[in-house]
TrEMBL record:
Pathway terms, separated by semicolons: Cofactor biosynthesis; molybdopterin biosynthesis
InterPro entries: MoaB/Mog-like_dom_sf, MoaB/Mog_dom, MoCF_biosynth_CS, MoeA-like, MoeA_C_domain_IV, MoeA_C_domain_IV_sf, MoeA_linker/N, MoeA_linker/N_sf
PANTHER family membership: GEPHYRIN, MOLYBDOPTERIN BIOSYNTHESIS PROTEIN
Record domain MoaB/Mog: where: 186-323
Any one GO biological process: Mo-molybdopterin cofactor biosynthetic process
Known function: Catalyzes the insertion of molybdate into adenylated molybdopterin with the concomitant release of AMP.
One GO cellular component term noted in the UniProt record for this chain: cytosol
Keywords of the record: Magnesium, Metal-binding, Molybdenum, Molybdenum cofactor biosynthesis, Transferase
GO molecular function: metal ion binding; molybdopterin molybdotransferase activity
Protein name: Molybdopterin molybdenumtransferase
The reaction(s) this protein catalyses: adenylyl-molybdopterin + molybdate = Mo-molybdopterin + AMP + H(+)
Length: 413
């Protein structure tokens, strides 16, 4: 069966084009804040971090042992032990010819010493020692500034701060960093049938899983949220909420109301108050996804079906919100795996089937679909650890074929 050209279907945009449109249309939010290192994981630097000290700050020992002068070893005579050097309590004298100092790991190298011999290679007898192995000059010494030199730039503005970054910054004595301000994301669901989890259901009601899941995902992304709750299918109520969101937030996410039903008002209101960049994406699940701007504030309209909402959020909204946080999107992590069960597919939309991948007994990556693949079936997504990505132009695939997979990460993994 020949592949369908999605670009020829009015309004149905390939996911690659949709994602690129989002990334090009958005930019980091303005404003910065100063925070402590303990709060900085995952945040984006707004200023360079420059070291004002050397790391290590002085020559120090890499081993427990003895600090001495290398030239004294040529005679083969015992060396006199004249003191001790501990981390935080250095020896303040001088290692003169024929002498040595007991030294601990991390302790400052005493003046006059140029070599450290491990304690395992020393025969200590009272107040003197003999060396029992070959030694090289400068052994077991960490040099001042060998890790970081005073005045050097550690991290550049725009870098995302990781835990190793925090360790490095703390090691040079910097306690606070200037980072890009957190975007504020306004969020609401629409639907007369929606109820808050924990409330009683009447006939025809369902629980609002989308908004709750998105609140958790946004928290995992370390974003501030303006939660506007569940809105009824009322055009004026939705209009008021969108106008408030545009004034108070940096981005707006809605769930439901962007399809073509008689009560789907969100898209209608957005067209009246703002502009829609695109609507409907050539992806499955998740075709009815809307992106636009409302009074300059970006808007992401997610489908109402729960799996569709989370898949479009992960594939389209997460990269876009990353840009707003100051993070450059580098693309999804993609692996190749052998498919264990056949999958049905029609050409026309990129398919994100939910799957479980693992290494088999031969160390080869294998994957199989998990659960039913309907856009309303949450159990499969809950059990999955990856998406099986079937290209837009591809058809069905057979067991044994190699397929692309995307391991699930934050905020779904």
């Amino acid at each position: 069966m020949p592949a369908i050209d999605c670009c020829s279907q009015p309004g149905l945009m390939p996911i690659e084009s949709a994602r690129e449109t989002l990334l090009q249309a958005l930019k980091p939010v303005s404003g910065t804040e100063v925070i402590s290192l303990a709060q900085a994981t995952g945040r984006v630097l707004a200023e360079n971090v420059v070291s004002t000290v050397n790391l290590p700050p002085c020559d120090n020992s890499a081993m427990d042992g003895y600090a001495l002068r290398f030239e004294d070893l040529a005679s083969g005579l015992p060396l006199e032990l004249i003191g001790k050097s501990f981390a935080g309590a250095p020896f303040d004298g001088v290692v003169n010819p024929g002498t040595c100092v007991r030294i601990m790991t991390g302790a400052a190298l005493p003046a006059g010493a140029d070599t450290v011999v491990m304690q395992e290679n020393v025969d200590a007898q009272g107040e003197s020692i003999r060396i029992t192995c070959d030694v090289r000059p400068g052994d077991h010494i960490r040099r001042c500034g060998e890790d970081v030199a005073e005045g050097s730039s550690l991290l550049q503005a725009g870098e995302r701060i990781s835990v190793p970054h925090i360790a490095l910054i703390a090691a040079v004595g910097v306690g606070n960093v200037t980072v890009v301000r957190k975007p504020v994301v306004a969020l609401f669901s629409t639907g007369d049938e929606l109820r808050q989890p924990g409330d009683a259901l009447s006939k025809g009601d369902i629980y609002d899983s989308n908004r709750i899941a998105l609140l958790a995902a946004l928290a995992q992304m370390d974003l501030d949220v303006l939660d506007l709750g569940i809105l009824p299918d009322n055009k004026q109520t939705i209009s008021d909420a969108l106008e408030r969101a545009a004034k108070e937030a940096d981005a707006i996410i809605t769930s439901g109301g962007v399809s073509v039903g008689e009560a789907d008002y969100t898209r209608e209101v957005l067209e009246e108050l703002g502009e829609i960049g695109f609507w409907k994406v050539a992806m499955k699940p998740g075709k009815p996804f809307a992106f636009g701007f409302l009074q300059g504030t970006p808007f992401f309209g997610l489908p109402g079906n729960p799996v569709s909402a989370l898949v479009t959020f992960y594939q389209l909204t997460v990269p876009a919100l990353g840009v707003m946080k100051g993070i450059k999107w580098s693309g999804p992590q993609t692996l190749q795996a052998k498919l264990l069960k056949p999958l049905k597919k029609k050409p026309g939309r990129t398919d994100f089937q939910r799957g479980v991948y693992r290494s088999d007994e031969n160390g080869e990556l294998v994957v199989e679909p998990v659960g039913a693949q309907g856009s309303h079936i949450l159990t499969g997504l809950a059990a999955a650890n990856c998406f099986i990505v079937l290209a837009r132009e591809s058809g069905s695939v057979e067991a044994g074929d190699r397929v692309a997979i995307e391991p699930l990460g934050v905020p779904l993994g």
